[in-house]
Write a structure and sequence with these properties.
four-stranded parallel β-sheet, 14 helices, 8 strands, alpha/beta, about 50% helix, Rossmann fold, globular, single chain, binds iron/sulfur cluster, about 400 residues
C-alpha cells in the first residue's frame, strides 16, 4: 500500500530529478510574463526574485544523472564537477526556461562560470553577486544593501514592474516561513533521526530547487507531519554531522551509503543556501527597509560557512562544533567535493576544532558522478563502529 508519506517522497523524487526543469516550464506557462532565475550555490537573495514576480530555481549541476560531454571542453581537469554538468545542461537546452542566472561570490569556479555564461548566453540576465567581506553593518551591511539594490533593479526590468517595499516584506515573510519549516524538519531529525532518513530528506530538500517557496514550505510541513506520525522503528545508529556537501549534488547513493554503514545523519549542510540566515529576516525592531534587513541578516546571522571570508579564523570551527553539539552528533564526517577549494582549504582548521572539542571525525572526497561507494561504506562503517564502541566504553 502506498502511504501518503511514500507518495510525498515520490513526488519529491520526481522534482529532485527534474533536470530539464519541466516544473519550471509548467509554472511559466501558467501565466504570461512569468520569469525564472537560476541561483547557483550557495546563497542568493531569493526574496528579491520572488518579490519581482519571478521563480528562483536552484542550479546545482546534474548530479550523477548527466553524462558530461561538451561541458568538459570548457574546463581544466582539476576543478570540481559542478560547472561541467551545469554547462552541459545549459548547452543541451535543459536550462532554457531560465531567463537569467545569479552567480554568488562563492568561489573562483562559480565566478568563472558567470563569465562563460555571459559569452554563451548574451541574451540572458547574468549577475555576479558580491558578498560582503566586512561584517560591520556600516561597511559590509551598507555595501551589501547597495549590491541587492542593483540586483533588484535588473529583476524589476525583467519583471516589467516596480517592486515596492511592501512586496519585498511579503516575500521576506514567505521565506521566513520556509526557513522555519526547514528548521522544524531538521529539529525532528535531530530528535528522532530514524523518523527522517537523510536519504529521504535530501529528495524533499532538492524538490525546493524547482518549486515556488509557498509550495515547498507546504511540502516541508506535510513531510514533517507524516514522518513524525510514521511510527518507523527506533534505530540505534551512530549520530553524525555531515559537512562539506553545500554545493555539488552528492549522489543519493552516497547519502544512502553513509546511512547503511550505521550512521544517522543528524546535521548537514545539504541545504546551506536555504538555511544560511539563522532565524527570521523580518526584523523584530525597526529597520531601514527590506534590502537593509536582508543585508543585516546576512552579516549578523549568516552561517560561518566555508564559502565566507571571516576575519576570525576560529569562527568556522566553532560554528561547526556548535551545530554538531546542538544536533546531538557524536562525530563529524567531512565529505568535500573533489577540488572544492572552500571546503578543503578550511578543513584542516575545522577538523582541529572538532578534535579539540572531543568529537571524532573522518573525511573523504566525492564527486557528483561518483558511482563507487564501497570504500566510503567501509570507512564510514568503521567510523560508526568506533563511535559506538567508545560511547559504550
Ligand atoms: S563544489 Fe566547491 S569549488 Fe566547486 S563550485 Fe562549489 S564551492 Fe566552488
Amino acid at each position: 500500500m502506498v502511504t501518503p508519506l511514500d507518495a510525498l517522497v515520490e513526488q519529491a523524487r520526481a522534482l529532485a530529478d527534474d533536470l530539464r526543469l519541466d516544473a519550471v516550464r509548467r509554472w511559466k506557462a501558467e501565466a504570461p510574463g512569468r520569469f525564472a532565475i537560476g541561483c547557483l550555490p550557495v546563497w542568493t537573495p531569493r526574496e528579491l526574485i520572488h518579490a519581482a514576480g519571478g521563480l528562483p530555481v536552484g542550479v546545482r549541476g546534474g548530479g550523477d544523472a548527466v553524462e558530461v560531454v561538451r561541458g568538459d571542453a570548457y574546463f581544466q581537469s582539476y576543478i570540481c564537477q559542478l560547472p561541467r554538468s551545469t554547462l552541459e545542461l545549459a548547452l543541451d537546452g535543459s536550462l532554457d526556461p531560465l531567463d537569467g542566472v545569479i552567480f554568488p561570490s562563492t568561489c573562483d569556479v562559480i565566478r568563472n562560470l558567470s563569465g562563460m555564461w555571459q559569452l554563451l548566453f548574451p541574451d540572458k540576465l547574468v549577475r555576479y553577486l558580491d558578498v560582503p567581506q566586512s561584517l560591520r553593518p556600516e561597511l559590509g551591511g551598507a555595501f551589501f544593501a547597495r549590491e541587492l539594490k542593483e540586483l533588484l533593479h535588473d529583476l524589476q526590468r525583467l519583471g516589467g514592474r516596480p517592486v515596492t517595499d511592501e512586496a519585498l516584506w511579503a516575500s521576506i515573510a514567505a521565506y521566513d516561513a520556509h526557513r522555519q519549516a526547514l528548521e522544524e524538519v531538521y529539529a525532528l531529525r535531530a530528535a528522532q533521526p530514524w523518523l527522517v532518513p537523510t536519504s529521504e530528506l535530501y529528495l524533499v530538500l532538492r524538490a525546493g530547487d524547482v518549486l515556488p517557496v509557498e509550495a515547498h514550505t507546504a511540502m516541508l510541513r506535510d513531510y514533517r507531519a507524516l514522518a513524525a506520525a510514521s511510527g518507523r522503528p527506533v534505530e540505534d545508529q551512530a549520530r553524525v554531522a555531515l559537512t562539506g556537501c553545500f554545493c555539488e549534488r552528492p549522489p543519493l547513493g552516497l547519502i544512502q551509503t553513509i546511512e547503511r554503514s550505521g550512521c544517522a545523519i543528524v546535521e548537514d549542510d545539504l541545504a546551506l543556501g536555504q538555511r544560511f540566515v539563522r532565524g527570521d529576516v523580518t526584523p523584530s525592531g525597526a529597520a531601514e527597509g527590506p534590502l537593509e534587513a536582508l543585508a543585516l541578516a546576512f552579516i549578523e546571522r549568516g552561517r560561518a560557512a566555508q564559502t565566507m571570508f571571516l576575519p576570525d579564523h576560529c569562527a568556522k570551527g566553532a560554528a561547526l562544533v556548535d551545530d554538531a553539539r546542538r544536533a546531538g552528533a557524536e562525530g563529524v564526517i567531512f565529505a568535500a567535493a573533489s577540488f572544492c577549494d572552500p571546503a578543503l582549504l578550511d578543513q584542516p582548521m575545522t577538523a582541529k576544532a572538532v578534535e579539540a572539542a572531543g568529537l571524532p571525525s573522518t573525511s573523504f572526497k566525492y564527486a557528483e558522478n561518483t558511482g563507487q561507494f564501497q570504500s566510503i561504506r567501509e570507512q564510514t562503517g568503521a567510523f560508526a563502529d568506533t563511535i559506538k564502541i567508545w560511547s559504550e566504553a
